[in-house]
Predict the structure of UDP-glucose 6-dehydrogenase.
Amino acid sequence: MNITIVGTGYVGLVSGTCLADLGHSVHCVDINREKVEMMQKGKVPIYEPQLEEVFLRNIKGGRLFFTTELKEAMKVSNVIFLALPTPPGEDGSADLSYVLNVAEQIGDLMTEYTLIVNKSTVPVGTSEKVKNLIQTKTKFPFDVVSNPEFLREGYAVEDFMKPERVIVGGSSQRAFEIMDRIYLPLTNAGIKMIKMDEKSSELTKYASNSFLATKITFMNEVANYCEKVGADVDKVRFGMGSDERIGNRFLFPGLGYGGSCFPKDVKALIKSGKEVGHNFQILESVEKINQKQKTILIPEVEKYLGGLEGKNIAIWGLAFKENTDDIREAPSLEIIEQLLEKGAKVTAYDSIASDNVKKIWKNKITYADNMYDCIEGADALIIATEWGEFRNPHFNILKEKMKNRAIFDGRNLYDLNELAFHGFYYKSIGRKLIKK
Ligand code: UDX
């Protein structure tokens, strides 16, 4: 099939590339000329494991194209995926202007039956809005379906190719049949497609992300309580997760959730609820608790060092999680902000995300080239991202290079006994404090 994808951000580019890998001819449209030229030359604009290989394979195979012209793409395809940003407005509600602008253009450009597939995360009722808008612009028949995306950064290609489910929300047989054909290579391989109405589909996305954010937040609360009563959150997590009704995933306590989806979607669901007089009290608490969790280690470092003024603090990890260069809503940013406010000198290391942090914090902090340079002379080390390279460091090098043997681990990477053996002061989340 010929498919157009409008928007080559994270979701658009991964979806377009993977749809091409399922055998479709995919035309990706973006208004950013520079980015389009870059992609035409075979360069992937984002860091995502596996993406480059699939991207190049499909460009070479003549199935993946890039253009700035929606009109050109629509000449060869009557299925258009919208993968446009829906950033939070000042009040937390999703800004639909990109989606509605493109919908209007599609309405103007249509010359035959067209299926508009919305992949952007949008509030309940957006399909209807898009439908009503296009209706005013065209005399040709069309359908709008909702097909939310559940990609995780760092695993996006895998998540697209082997999703736990494909959700399609629509109200026309014709549209469902086209969606069946698009996803046939996946459903043939046993992936289930769940069909429903548009509104339920739109809400499925928000409810899923908000539920996961709540699950993480619940565990952070349990972890903080564990510290007060002397329980070990790792044991509690394991015990809880063994109940299949709870499941063992997304139970890891840490520095709170970040990234481009959970914070934005939780806010947007709270806001959409308010618009119809529904108070999502649980999500309001989730937001508050999560915000606090990001910097929960700062008072601990401060207490240990007797103040932060003039202290050298090393940070391992800047990305909001491992396997991505994304720093949106990353705990590291708030940690740096508080450390600087309190007069500390900060040296940070992240193999991928440093360049993005440089754009924000410029030369207010020092960026180390590797994890061991980062801790040279440090009064304390804070671990903010669970990158694989931090999981098994040479503790002897740390002992040699650090001024104090003190680790504040926001990701619970180490065994308590091992750190005690090496003589570290080791503060993690929801576990016993190891004092040297
Ligand atoms: C998420 C959803 O998983 C995905 O389905 C959706 O489409 C987009 O949002 P992503 O933001 O890439 O994906 O990251 P994810 O791996 O889900 O982690 C989100 C945040 O939760 C990260 O900050 C991570 O560190 C945190 N997290 C995750 C925890 O603190 N504990 C956990 O047990 C799991």
